[in-house]
Amino acid sequence: MYERKIPELLDCGLAVALKVIGGKWKAWIMDCIRRGVARPSAIHREMQEVAPRIINMHLKELEEYGILYKEVYAESPARVEYKFTDIGESLLPVLATLETWGNLNKEYIQRNIDTYQPGTCRFLPQ
C-alpha cells in the first residue's frame, strides 16, 4: 500500500475543497451526474476522451469522500447509478460559480496561454 512521504494538510478549507473537486476530470464527472448522466457506462460515453479506468477511479474517490453514493438496483442485469449525497449537492453552487468564472475569463486565459514564453516568467505585451 502507498504511504505518503509528506502528510496532507487538510486543516485549510481550500485544500479540502481542491482535494475533493480538484484534478482534471472530477468536475466534469459531477456535472454529468448533475445533468442526469448517472450510470457509469453513460458517463464513459459522455466522457469519451477519458479512459474508463480513470473515470471509475474518480467515481470511487468521490464516493469515498461522501460526495456521491452508488445506488444498485435489484435488476438483472444489475443497474448502478451514482447520486449526490447532501454534501455533494452543496458543491453544485460552487461548481456553477467556477463555470461562470471560466466562461467570463476563458478568452483572457487562452490569450495569456498563447502569448506566454517559457523561461521568461512573464507574458508578452499585447
Automatic annotation (TrEMBL):
Record keywords: DNA-binding, Transcription, Transcription regulation
Listed SUPFAM superfamilies: Winged helix' DNA-binding domain
Pfam family, any one: HxlR
Domain HTH hxlR-type: start-end pairs: 12-110
PANTHER family referenced in this protein's UniProt entry, alphabetically: TRANSCRIPTIONAL REGULATOR, TRANSCRIPTIONAL REGULATOR, MARR FAMILY
Name of protein: Helix-turn-helix transcriptional regulator
